[in-house]
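From the pipeline queue, job 12 of 40. The input is one protein chain; the requested action is below.

Action: predict structure.
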Amino acid sequence: ALLLWTPETPNLNSRVVSLSADGKDIDRKAERFGWREWTIDGGKYLLNGKPIQFRSDSWHFMGVPQMTRRYAWAWFKAIKEANGNAVRLHAQVYPSFYHDVADEMGICILDETANWASDGGPKFDREIFWKNSITHLERFIKRDRNHASVLGWSVSNENKPVILHVFNRPDLMPAQEKAWADWRDTCRRLDPTRPWISSDGEEDGKGLL
């Protein structure tokens, strides 16, 4: 039997897949994973059937100083030493070595896309923005879904308050509401193993998330 992955016991396993032709191996890939199950029971989030409370940190990705495994290890070590167990990788697609280190150290990740509006930058009035946001989310989930540390998906950050209080464009909310449903369905289609689908600063997306 495989040992369970938890923040206290971050057990990892590996599956090796080989591709052969004419009796010879022509390609091989190893994928590491942790054996765990995320579920929701009422207002409780469960890991392997047991309620878990997240004690977490969050931080903007600031570029070059953070581009090493050593930085990720030092950050997660500080979280562990403060009796924490989770992190929100905020508003950017972090390098995947952050997920590797979190898998190894037992840090739960709320994985967040680069779909964030705090700077007033997104072109919410353009159809291409909404189309590309789905493509971005699909690539994001496919990259990270095999990491044991990922507890759920944060599909966007503060779109709603920017639409309503920065752009003052309530007429754009129907497009955002459709996107919440599209993003939710994309998460469920590509990763049915994690029921957590959220968006920071947007409540529960009018009940859609």
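Job complete. Strands lie at 13-21, 24-33, 38-41, 44-47, 50-51, 56-60, 86-90, 108-112, 150-157, 197-200.
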